[in-house]
Amino acid sequence: MENILERVPFYLTILSTICGGLTAGLLGGIAIWTFRDIHARSRDILAQILATLLVIALPVIGLVIYLMLRPRETLAEAYERSLEQEALLQAIEEPEVCPGCGQRVKGDYLYCPACHTRLKRACPACDRPLHLRWSLCPYCGAIVAPQALEPVPNPNA
User: Fold this and answer.
1) Among 46, 65, 66, 135, which one is most buried in terms of CB atoms within 10 A?
2) Which pTM value belongs to this model?
3) Is a pLDDT exceeding 60 seen at residue 155?
4) What pLDDT score does 150 carry?
5) Domain count, the chain
6) Can you give the chain as a three-state secondary structure string?
7) In this structure, are 108 and 143 located in the same domain?
8) In angstroms, rounded to a whole number, what is the distance separating the alpha carbons of residues 49 and 26?
9) What does the pLDDT look like over 108-126, one tens digit per residue?
């Protein structure tokens, strides 16, 4: 019995060393995770250092504070969102193309200048360009018969 009691400090030393090592590893892991997370969310070096130091100085509380204050999206997510917005804007502003030759044409062209395909027609009442499949002028309300796309013969050929 005395032999076991004499070894208690040795066992406590081993136990405290293991617990200390696990705690240090956990705190190191939290600090590394925090640095990587803020690095993915911000380009600001000062914010990265301060967030990491906060978690190191106040391990559990600092992590909770960091999680409440960190940016909502990563830089990659912000970049993807900006690409999606840019693509949507390009789709909205994308110029029209001729169905006959694929050349870009302006929205008010009646004929393609490259292949002479009829793109639109003029409204008989207000002379504004109308899509060929429209049966009503959206500008003045005139009734028109829809037509099909057809190339116009080139007079120079």
Assistant:
1) 66
2) 0.54
3) no
4) 53
5) 2
6) CHHHHHHHHHHHHHHHHHHHHHHHHHHHHHHHHHHHHHHHHCCCHHHHHHHHHHHHHCHHHHHHHHHHHCCCCCHHHHHHHHHHHHHHHHHHHCCEECCCCCCEECCCCCECCCCCEECEEECCCCCCEEECCCCECCCCCCECCCCCCCECCCCCC
7) yes
8) 19
9) 888 889 998 888 888 888 9
Average pLDDT in the 139-148 region?
79
Nearest to 120 by CA among 137, 95, 103: 137
Specify if 144 maps to a domain. Answer: yes
What is the CB-side half-sphere exposure of residue 91 using CA atoms within 13 A? 6
* Sole residue written with tokens 């136990």: 15
What range defines the domain where residue 60 resides? Answer: 2-76
In a domain, 111, yes or no: yes
Q: Are residues 62 and 102 in the same domain?
A: no
